[in-house]
Amino acid sequence: MWINKEQLPLFKRLLPLILLTISVIGSAWFYWKSDSKVEQLLISKEWQSMSTVRIDTDYEDMGPLKRADIKSNVVYLPNKTYSKSSTLTIYSGLTDEIHPLTINVMETGNWDYSGDYLLIDPTEFKDVTASDNKNFSGSQKKLIMRVFRMDAQQSKRVDVVNDKTLLLTSLNYGSGILFSH
Predict the structure, then answer these.
(1) What is the torsion angle, in degrees rounded to the nearest 10, for the CA atoms of residue 63, residue 66, residue 71 and residue 75?
(2) Helix (H, G, I), strand (E, B) or coil at 156
(3) What's any one GO cellular component for it (predicted)?
(4) Which residues are CB-contacts of 65 (< 8 A; sequence separation ≥ 6)?
(5) Residues 54-100 pLDDT 10s
(6) Which residues fall within 8 angstroms of residue 135, CB to CB, at 6 or more apart?
(7) What are the backbone dihedrals phi and psi of residue 50, each rounded to the nearest 5 degrees, phi first?
(8) How many helices and strands (H and E) does the chain possess?
(9) What is the three-state SS of 29-96?
(10) Which residues, including other chains, have CB under 8 Å from residue 50's CB and lie 6 or more apart?
(11) Distance between CA 178 and CA 50 in Å, rounded?
(12) Alpha-carbon gap, residue 112 to 120, rounded angstroms
């Protein structure tokens, strides 16, 4: 046998300590490499994003639309639901147009984080805009909302830049940043 009788009591005292150390190291490695770290970061803050979309004038369906600025605030809740408030400011290509169209959208739904991807399943969109703009038709507003909804339904890869910044990369186009103060 490789342990003699004098070493056995020492081995019996050290074995639990060795097993505990291995368990702590394994658990720490699992935690830092698992999805739970990013999930905790997602639910710990209110996240904000800003983006600008340029609209090509070749599309007749879009009419006078030239540019859209999107500002969003989103909260991911521990029960795997989210609430997102977005303000879309849409600018017309008409040179005499001074006031852009502003659309306020409330979005709610479910979220999950798995394998470095944030999976969003929107369940409800509400246009909570108080005013109206006559330069944009109802069909143009519906088209804008449809594009907004399609963007929301995409899975996005999450890379943690730091505790206040997340990089979201879409599977088919572009990246966005979620930031927190």
Answers:
(1) 50
(2) strand
(3) membrane
(4) 55, 90, 91, 92, 93, 136, 140, 144
(5) 776 555 665 667 788 899 999 999 999 999 999 988 887 765 556 77
(6) 64, 92, 94, 97, 101
(7) -140, 140
(8) 3, 8
(9) HHHHHCHHHHHHHHHCCEEEEEEEEECCCCCHHHCCEEEEEEEEEEEECCCCEEEEEEEEEEEECCCC
(10) 69, 70, 71, 72
(11) 8
(12) 7
Q: How is residue 25 written in tokens?
A: 């190291």
Decide if 102 contacts 86 (C-beta within 8 A).
Answer: no
Residue with the two structure tokens 């979620």:
178
Q: Please, is 69 exposed, middle or buried when counting C-beta atoms within 10 Å of its C-beta (0-12, 13-18, 19+)?
A: middle
Residue the block writes with tokens 């342990």: 3
Q: State how far the Cα of 68 lies from the Cα of 57, in Å rounded to an integer.
A: 13
- SS3 assignment, position 127: strand
Question: Residue with structure tokens 């502003």?
Answer: 102
Length of the chain: 181
